[in-house]
Specification:
about 5% strand, two-stranded antiparallel sheet
Length: about 525
């Protein structure tokens, strides 16, 4: 397979193709829908399913193309692979530069995988204004993939903003009763952090400016190249703290870290099923990815400052325990899963800032596994909601006797979210706690207590939904999962088992990037400390 991919120059065109294909698909969905509705009513009605079919086929093609990255990627080499670089706006020093390391590789594959399922899972839940809905999902895919691939800070910011707009409309148009409030809250929180990040990016670009020849004249232009800024940009310790603070706020809101998490439960509860899945499985990872790619490596002196580091780790552990405790008292099953994301993403932040190879690899595994497990939970919640039109746990009871396939899948995915050994959730949390215990044993022990609370709130929830007495007549005739829903869940269950039993291929591809991250941060943090002490 690797030889075939090399023979077709796969590494030269695949990254821009993955960005362009969803945009082309969005145009096809909108144009095809307009053409199909120009005829008589009967023809228009017959063509009503075209947008979802076209979009799903485009997402499937995107996933198939991205699979080549798994085989073409050299697992034993650190640094950028599949790099693509071309001028974009030379007068501003902006280039269209893309590349992957082991971390970005897994995030790209997670994105293309989940988006196929998100499109397929919307076939029955979204019937009104289907064409713009699927077009927005496709544009959103380009934005998310662009964030993971960008090696130019201005391009990174552009992609960060591009993905914000589609999700705002997906929640605001196809969401629940409080969708306007939820979408505005999501937009405002994210936008405030994004604007501060833009200021920091411009400052860094000006610090790394260089001379170029444009129209026969020598000009000094900013340089937003990630590699150039890493190598040449030098800021004072005081400026580094402010710049790190700007990036921290942008990424902490997106994670979301405690206490910046308040937009998340509203957005999750009001979003349509696919919107909740994409938010949980991919968009929350953009915040933690931002810490790994930008905030910590660019400003290791500020990020590893003992006071700053302790504050962030403390907030992460508070989020772990707080998210679990709040989930314990939620009457709404979807909100329960939403608050559980605050807890799970706290493990990622703990792993990143504990700064050991084991903890960073564990953080990366939690990012992947949370996307699979929580995405599966949101799909199952959406399936039962379509049948009963309620998310309240108290409205159910005894469903295991009526919908055994649904009950079996919900129980299995719940075990995955609890991190039962043998499922995908275990390896990530185990590595985070193992690595964090080496540097912050007290915080690791406190974080470990949340595993018990997680088991309590999830097992109690499925007991009330599935195994309590079947005392409500309306639940006696709920249909079980159909073939489409079983087909939708099968890939997620397969990944849960695979990563729980044999995670080595994934860990092997991420290990060089994790080791490089730890090495760079430790080295540059020590240099920053030495410079600060020498300046005194």
């Amino acid at each position: 397979m690797r030889e075939f991919l090399l023979s077709v120059a796969y590494d030269r065109w695949i990254l821009p193709a993955l960005l362009a294909l969803p945009l082309l698909g969005a145009a096809l969905v909108l144009i095809g829908n307009r053409t199909s509705t120009e005829g008589d009513d009967e023809v228009a009605t017959g063509a009503a399913d075209r947008p979802r079919l076209v979009a799903t086929l485009v997402f499937a093609l995107e996933f198939v193309l991205s699979l080549g990255l798994w085989w073409s990627f050299d697992a034993g080499r650190s640094g950028w692979q599949q790099r693509f670089d071309m001028p974009w706006i030379p007068s501003w020093g902006i280039r269209f530069t893309l590349g992957l390391d082991g971390i970005a590789l897994m995030m790209v594959l997670l994105t293309t995988f989940i988006m196929v399922l998100a499109s397929f899972g919307s076939w029955t839940s979204v019937r009104q204004k289907a064409a713009p809905y699927y077009a927005l999902l496709l544009v959103l895919t380009t934005g998310m993939l662009g964030v993971f691939m960008s090696l130019d800070l201005f391009l990174f910011y552009m992609m960060w903003e591009i993905m914000l707009v589609p999700m705002y409309f997906i929640v605001g148009i196809w969401g629940g009763q409080r969708r306007i409030y939820a979408s505005l809250k999501f937009f405002i929180y994210t936008m405030v952090g994004s604007l501060l990040m833009l200021v920091a990016i411009v400052y860094l670009g000006l610090q790394a400016q260089h001379e170029v020849t444009l129209h026969g004249m020598r000009q000094v232009v900013p340089d937003f190249s990630y590699d150039t800024i890493m190598a040449t940009a030098r800021v004072t310790p005081h400026a580094a703290l402010w710049l790190f603070g700007a990036f921290f706020l942008a990424f902490a809101v997106k994670v979301p870290m405690f206490p910046f998490h308040t937009w998340l439960p509203d957005a999750h509860v009001e979003a349509p099923t696919a919107g909740s899945v994409v938010l949980a499985a991919i968009m929350l990872k953009l915040g933690t990815f931002g810490f790994l790619r930008l905030a910590v490596p660019l400003f290791p002196g500020a990020a590893m400052n003992p006071t700053v580091r302790t504050i962030i780790l403390t907030l992460a552990v508070i989020g772990i325990v707080y998210g679990a405790l709040v989930s314990l008292v939620q009457p709404d099953f979807k909100k329960l899963v939403a608050y559980s994301s605050v807890s799970h993403l706290g493990f990622v932040m703990l792993g990143i800032f504990a700064l050991t190879v084991q903890s960073v690899q564990g953080a990366l595994m939690v990012m992947i596994n949370h996307g699979l497990s929580t995405g599966a939970l949101f799909f199952l919640i959406g399936m039962i909601y379509e049948r009963r039109h309620t998310r309240l746990i108290a409205d159910y009871g005894g469903l295991a006797r009526v919908v055994p396939m649904f009950a079996a899948m919900l129980t299995f995915v719940t075990f995955s979210s609890i991190a039962v050994p043998g499922t995908n959730g275990f390896i990530g949390e185990f590595l985070v706690l193992l690595g964090a215990f080496r540097t912050y044993p007290v915080l690791a022990v406190i974080a470990a207590t949340s595993v018990i609370i997680t088991a309590a709130y999830l097992l109690w929830a499925i007991q009330r939904i599935l195994f309590n007495p079947l005392d409500k007549p309306v639940n006696e005739h709920v249909p079980d999962l159909n073939r489409r829903e079983l087909l939708l869940m099968a890939p997620l269950l397969a990944c849960i088992i695979w990563l729980g039993v044999y995670p080595a291929p994934v860990l092997r591809r991420m290990q060089p990037a994790a080791e490089q991250f730890v090495r760079i941060v430790e080295t540059r943090a020590a240099m920053a400390t030495a410079d600060a002490q020498g300046g005194r």
